[in-house]
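Justification of computing resources. Each target in the renewal requires a structure prediction run like the one illustrated here; the chain below, 69 residues long, is used simply to show the kind of job we budget for.
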Amino acid sequence: MSFTLRQLLGTKALVVIDECPTGKRPFTTKADADQALRRINPTQRARMHFFRCGYCERYHIGHPRGRQL
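Resulting structure tokens:
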């Protein structure tokens, strides 16, 4: 069975949201997230990646899961 975080938390978020409840900045497209990564990664100790959010269905930037700094 597959479900999204939106389905678990309810249908209140069916309208377009400008902010994600996860607290991360949403990017509309992969290209936007990739452009932001190119600016951010040279300044980070550990490389970051973009991923699709299960709640807002937009892209966020973060460290890979399970990675120790």
